[in-house]
Design brief:
Blueprint: E1 2-6, H1 11-31, E2 35-39, H2 44-54, E3 60-62, H3 67-72, E4 79-83, E5 89-94, H4 99-109
Parallel strand pairs: 1-2, 2-3
Antiparallel strand pairs: 1-4, 4-5
Length: about 110
């Protein structure tokens, strides 16, 4: 599972969404990869427009009171967590996830 904190006003978030979509399409069916977005300090209507524009297919939850971000100790978006099938946090990326970052972090949680 990948948990990604993002916001519609976050330019690096916009830049990394296509990577998540591409990898989810490629890996999700065979590896069971799941991506969950968490909306960080943003308005739901702006987020919906952002998701529609970028064609994101994964679910996003709204963190209206900031409790999810606090639990994950989010500094600012984008911030991404890589969690294995046992629920153990295996990696974290503060800032935009680039393709090589994704590959390195995903290797830590990929099914064996």
């Amino acid at each position: 599972m990948i948990v990604n904190f993002w916001a519609s006003w976050c330019t690096p978030c916009r830049d990394e969404f296509p990577l998540f979509q591409e990898r989810l399409s490629a890996l999700g069916p065979s590896d069971g990869l799941v991506v969950i977005g968490v909306l960080y300090k943003d308005q739901a209507d702006l987020a919906t427009k952002f998701l529609d524009e970028l064609g994101a297919t994964w679910p996003t939850v709204t963190d209206s009171d900031g409790s999810i971000a606090a639990a994950y100790r989010v500094v600012a978006p984008p911030q991404t967590y890589f969690i294995d099938s046992d629920g153990i946090l295996r990696g974290m990326q503060i800032g935009q996830v680039e393709p090589e970052d994704f590959d390195t972090q995903y290797a830590k949680i990929a099914p064996r």
